[in-house]
Amino acid sequence: MGIFDKLFGKRVTTRNFDKSQLSKSAEMLDENIYWNIITTSLKKTDNQDDQEQSLINEIEKLTPKEIIGFRLRTDKLLYDTYNSEIWCAGYIMNGGCSDDSFEYFRNWVISRGKETYYKAKENPDSLISEVNGDMEYYDFEGFWYVALEAFNRKTGKDLYDYIDNDNFKTNEGNYPQINFNWEEEEPESMRRICPQLFDKLWEN
């Protein structure tokens, strides 16, 4: 996979582990463990590059099955926020938002922690609390791949080969059809969904 090679290169530093643990899985990581890892990364770091490395280091401490579960939990959280309202927030915050950008935007939302994620899921305009003048774009592509890097380091294998896709359906390939309730050409339709974000960030 191109992005995997680009992000992670050829480096593999495998650890000792029970190779019988290497089997396909559709089981998500316990949500409390998942969010605790993210909370720890936020406390330890103050920028995305450092947070990404902190996440990889913590995830690598898990079993191979749990590492797969981290990625599956991420995919489920992405699936649950694949909707018109969250897309509106991403569109406003980034001055536009393609399909890929929407994935990276939602990864960024998740990376900000449990409270931020669930508030945004309930009301995307709550992301006004995360607005930072130093950020050019609100996205975090690398977050989507932290479990892949941790898995590769631990096992020397590609995590994608160990996802039980027959039994895990809340992923990118099964996103529902979105019926958009806003349009850029009708700014008021965006303001109705995210009034604070629109008034602060949208440039007409």
Give structural notes.
Helices cover 52% and strands 0% of the residues. It has 204 residues and is mainly α. The chain has one domain (27-169, 181-201). Helix 3 (48-59) crosses helix 8 (146-155). The longest helix has 17 residues, at 64-80.
Summary of the model, kept short:
Helices cover about 50% and strands about 0% of the residues.
How many strands appear in the DSSP assignment? 0
Q: pLDDT below 50 for ≥5 consecutive residues: which ranges?
A: 1-6
Number of domains: 1
Helix content: 40-55%
Number of helices: 10
Query: What is the radius of gyration computed over CA atoms, rounded to a whole number of angstroms?
Result: 18 Å
Described by the principal axes of the CA atoms, the overall outline is globular
Order of helices and strands: HHHHHHHHHH
Secondary structure category: mainly alpha
Largest sheet: none
Rounded average pLDDT:
92
Keywords:
204 residues, globular
List the helices and strands and how they pair.
Layout: H1 2-8, H2 31-44, H3 48-59, H4 64-80, H5 84-94, H6 99-111, H7 114-122, H8 146-155, H9 187-193, H10 195-201
Helix pairs in contact: 2-3, 3-8, 4-8, 5-6, 9-10
